[in-house]
Amino acid sequence: MAFLIQGRSxxxxxxxxxxxxxxxKMQFFSxxxxxxxxxxxxxxxxxxxxxxxxxxxxxxxxxxxxxxxxGAVDSDEDDLHNKILQxxxxxxxxxxxxxxxxxxxxxxxxxxxxxxxxxxxxxxYDNILYLISRVTNRFYVGEPLxxxxxxxxxxxxxxQGVPKAGxxxxxxxxxxxxxxxxxxxxxxxxEHQATALFGDILRHRIAMFEEYxxxxxxxxxxxITWFLEESEPHQRDPTKIAIRLLRVNFAGLxxxxxxxxxxxxxxxxxxxxxxxxxxxxxxxxxxYGWTKEGISKMYKLDSFIREVSRLKGFSALVLHRKVMxxxxxxxxxxxxxxxxxxxSVASSIANEELDEMNIKHQLTSxxxxxxxxxxxxxxxxxxxx
Length: 385
Prior knowledge:
Strand content: 5-15%
Radius of gyration: 22 Å
Strand order of the largest sheet: 1-2-7-4-3
Largest sheet: 5 strands, mixed
Helix content: 55-70%
């Protein structure tokens, strides 16, 4: 409980006491937790095999009790959404960039009315979550669903409800979770709401895909299409697709909804950066438009965001893994962590200064000196948003 409430303070105290060793452990209800405090161990985690250290099992059973809150994923569906994100988010921005810009303008006009020159008070987190829900779902599900107030409310409720339920379930000992979890899990409610809200749309899309296949000329450019094209026949079920869409929203929006306000707050505290960043954005858009190439050349904006991620981050802990090898997991110096142990890294250990600005230091490029999106093959695929 103390770590849940004062996690950063606990890590700071541990760094003072165990910084020389670079690692320490604590006993939680869920079992032993090992916390890495030194960069020397991060490379071991980055290069580990899934059969030795598992991100999936760490997420499902520990971080937010995702096996209870969003549902365990069948083995044949395990990586479907990650493959779609990794392939599509990086390659389709050029044809979707204008749509995303259009949605951003319309949503911002609702949040920040510009009818006069007076100051307006807005609730930052709630409005940022609304904004990114609108914009990302223009990409995920397209119009008109992305502007349906009921749909956006469901997405926002899911993004906020899953962590709350997960933290509540995690308060109970692990052996009680199979019994407690079903009573505390919001998943059945979300399944019912999602299917009732846009199940008919999904059934129509499935029927059109089954009739025309990948050659359907009028198919929308959205994630529903990608799910249908990449999935097996038994996976094309309205309820499964609906929950999968909510899962993708959760993965993409939860961290962003916390991080984007930090960027705005830092910008407000450092107004000297506003002019240079805005000037480069304006000149880049005039030359390239709202394209993938244009976004990639906004170096000052990217650098500012990356620096905020380095200083503030999203969480005190990153690189969550669970030891799956019955023989344990050994670091390069011979230190061995036993089977079933949860390992995570204190995000503060990667706070190093950058001495130059180039492509390898862009925010979307995973690096050992900034663990915001993780490292290695499990670096967050949603970073391309």
